[in-house]
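DATA SHEET
Item: assembly model
Revision: 1
Owner: S.N.
Input lines:
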Amino acid sequence: MSEINLSLDKVYQLAYDCMIANGCDHDNATALAETMTAAERDCCHAHGLFRLPGYAASLKSGKVKGDVKPTIKQLAPTVLQLDAHNGYAPLALKTAKQPLADCARQNGIAAMALIRVHHFAALWMEIEALAEMGLAAFAFTAYKPAVAPAGGSKPFFGTNPMAFGWPRKDKSPMVFDQASAAMARGEVMIAAREGHQLPEGVGITKDGKPTTDPNEVLEGAMLTFGGYKGASIALMIELLVGPLLGEAASFEAATRDNNDGGPPQGGELLIAIDPTKFGHPDDPFAHAEQLFAELLDQPGTRLPGERRHQNREKTEIEGINVPKSLIDKISELSA
Amino acid sequence: MSEINLSLDKVYQLAYDCMIANGCDHDNATALAETMTAAERDCCHAHGLFRLPGYAASLKSGKVKGDVKPTIKQLAPTVLQLDAHNGYAPLALKTAKQPLADCARQNGIAAMALIRVHHFAALWMEIEALAEMGLAAFAFTAYKPAVAPAGGSKPFFGTNPMAFGWPRKDKSPMVFDQASAAMARGEVMIAAREGHQLPEGVGITKDGKPTTDPNEVLEGAMLTFGGYKGASIALMIELLVGPLLGEAASFEAATRDNNDGGPPQGGELLIAIDPTKFGHPDDPFAHAEQLFAELLDQPGTRLPGERRHQNREKTEIEGINVPKSLIDKISELSA
């Protein structure tokens, strides 16, 4: 497959221009381009430029608004609600960050309920941003049915990622972001596009039979990681995003969505914790470094997210390779 | 193996008397007996009477105090800290429940940091108690190294359970409680005692080789559920219980513990959420029931915790069967 090398600045410009050409205002296009560039920078290509056609389609169909400004309300002393007014997640998350951090620092723990938001990227970005502000944080979001429940054979859960981050002094935060699906749906889509087989245990056919063919899995259902335990986590995420926030659980998002290829409307829950407010007799961050050092003392181990940071160091110098077919598609969409 | 049928009242009395005989005061013995009886009632035998010898050993060695009263401090508007003063978790959790619920109802979300506590039971009990008060809640605790990290081969993580609960009107709450180990350590100990083999993927020998022999796993290491994703959750729990609370991470608990067979000192983090404070335009609980109904509409599915509730209905009438060898041991300890 023919690929073209792009600098990260060029990736940003491509994404920004395409979003502007499709009706985004400057703030939304900036936030979207930052998000896609960060994904490409860390080699999470499934959340990078690969998403542009979906973003463009959802602007074209009118499902998502590219020119709206998120608003924030305080619902309770430690509960903030951000209404994205059917805009994209990146601007919503940029807007949510500081008020949530302030509320968590003041109270110890606080939550941000994002509603009417269209999320099409990774959760590690918002968690990394909060962790860089010195906060431990969780993020949860649902999607549309893609994953079979334990014992079932039809899609019910979204891929339902959860992310968690812990701040580190003088280092990038420790952040993991993992689908409760055995594999991220974007990765399955890329495997389908590139003609790769999937590992066993990732999904089933529409008749409920195990398969390693990504196209069969996209027509059938994905499975959760770790069997019924992953399914419990997927159910927890449905509850935290649907009934808790008053937003769509995955099965509801599907019925509301126009299937234009862009992100469905949904919710996202962020919980931020100020580790300096929990009574550590010494320094919680130094204590965590002892934990990390002890873990890394075992040969073969590494911290979650470490590979992303290694990729980052590389791509900031070398740029990234993008399939020419995708660049052609983006040029067409930006014309 | 010879077994004796006991009513739940008799289970309670056996546990209470044994704890009193070993130096507990009335409040601690009551809370411990309630906890062990609830475990037997739901057929979670690994946290029932099976734990009595360990509790007794830790009183005898002086590691745990059976006559202390937990105290609570407010560290921040939504952070409460319970110091168990080296007492057992059951009385600490009974004491923590109401202040945490009040703080969560007032603020929307709140945390309880339990420190200097000795936890030897399941987390679903405290989460069920909070959910019965109308709160969604998380619990996290660590232990002593038993589980190898992703890529490693030596015990580092505790079995590190997390639990989550959601309240249901007119029904028992939905509660799951799962070790980030592929299997609860208590279950491995029971398999060793009863001579059963373990499923594949549960553990490795002390040389890092896969095994299904529970004794080899107890000498070697357990594995996390779901590979590296379960390991991320195990690491998150270490951070939330150790560095966040200023308590022992699993690797530290091991060095402090006297290995008397009872529970090591550690911490536990509870987070409680009031679902009525998150801006649901209608009723979050009714919304959750729609989600559950849709899930259960798929043949073969059930909600987490359902088996426990079925056991409960049965054992409340029929009692439970306890190995005679364990009853003899308890009689000896109570003499």
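QC remark: Chain A touches chain B through 73 residues (CB under 8 Å).
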